[in-house]
Specification:
about 230 residues; alpha/beta; Rossmann fold; Alpha-Beta Plaits; six-stranded mixed sheet; four-stranded antiparallel sheet; 6 helices; globular; binds ribose-5-phosphate; ribose-5-phosphate isomerase activity
């Protein structure tokens, strides 16, 4: 995964997207270090009187939002006006997400939003998607999915935990295969192929879902509007 961006660039992007949040909105709260800056900025606005409700996309974003005093709800009770989320790679309007293994819940929340803003630093931008695609799988299906991914031309690797022996276990109790497909020429086709594999809970290809990409640098932010 690309983790090279500066924190100042991530902060600029997160705070830029947070400016789109308006009184009365239901806001999807993304996961990761860039989305965290947006959550903190929204928290400061809530402190100052902004009346919004957040829908978290992970344990991490829920915990941070609670720390920031943002009232929370789930999708049984509200519908999302605006979602703000990070990405591991951005090529045109397509993304790879799931560096933090949160992509299944993120996709549900981001896809349900009226508007979806992506926040990123310049290291995430690319001409073609090419970082490994995180694929969340039912634990009992990890071997069958790995074989099927190889048949699709991918090289799957079980994601290992860093401060625990064994695999990363997602917020949903599943495992993650990071699947290297090299340069992805047809993201929509690959997304569709991965979605049909039995045992795949969700993959990290977000094709044509974003409405805007906010790319921060230490000197400012570029906002790219996408036609979806
Ligand atoms: O699972 C994690 C998410 O998809 C993150 O939004 C993505 O990994 C980007 O995270 P960061 O902003 O920390 O690079």
């Amino acid at each position: 995964m690309k983790q090279g961006g500066s924190d100042a660039a991530k902060q600029a992007a997160g705070e830029s997207a947070a400016e789109a949040v308006e009184d009365g909105m239901v806001v999807g709260l993304g996961t990761g270090s860039t989305a965290a800056h947006a959550i903190r900025a929204i928290g400061r606005a809530v402190d100052a009187g902004l009346d919004i409700v957040g829908v978290p996309t992970s344990f991490q974003s829920r915990e941070l939002a609670r720390d920031c005093g943002i009232p929370l709800a789930d999708l049984d009770d509200v519908s999302v006006d605006l979602a703000i989320d990070g990405a591991d790679e951005v090529a045109g309007g397509d993304l790879i997400k799931g560096g933090g293994a949160a992509h299944a819940r993120e996709k549900v929340v981001d896809a349900s939003a009226d508007r979806f803003l992506v926040v990123a630093d310049p290291t995430k931008e690319a001409d073609h998607l090419s970082v490994p695609v995180p694929v969340e799988v039912l634990p009992m299906a990890r071997s069958t999915v790995a074989v099927a991914v190889a048949e699709l031309g991918g090289d799957p690797e079980l994601r290992r935990a860093e401060r625990k022996d064994g695999p990363v276990v997602t917020d949903n109790g599943n495992l993650v295969l990071d699947c290297d497909f090299g340069d992805i020429e047809d993201p929509a086709g690959l997304a569709s192929d991965l979605s049909t594999l039995p045992g795949v809970v969700e993959h990290g290809l977000f094709v044509d879902m974003a409405d805007e990409v906010h790319v921060g640098t230490a000197d400012g932010v570029t906002v790219r509007e996408l036609s979806t």
